[in-house]
Model the fold of this input.
Amino acid sequence: MNNGRHYLVTHLQTPGHDNPDGRIAEDIRIATDEALGLSISLFYTLLCVFGFYRNPLDAFGHGHADMGGIKTPVYGYLVWIAIIYAAGASLLGWWVGRPINTNN
Done:
């Protein structure tokens, strides 16, 4: 925008330099669409997680963990099993998909 470059660009003979304000507007639209899509996806995922979390808690109550002779109630044990399973699968996927170190 310095020295009227936005105006001078329209008089260049090289192709692809027309309508700079339209290109800027399109770039802004693309950037905001992606951010909005990601935030809506995050919100939906959090709603699903909390919706999933409440059902097993209500339906299955709690279990007991025996730690050294002391029985401790574990509320929502199926939720914790699902979280441990997902974390273990993610770690296994990360470990299998890591780059191979070729600098021996």
Q: What stands out?
A: The mean pLDDT is 79. Residues 61-104 form one domain. Residues 74 and 80 are 9 Å apart (CA to CA).
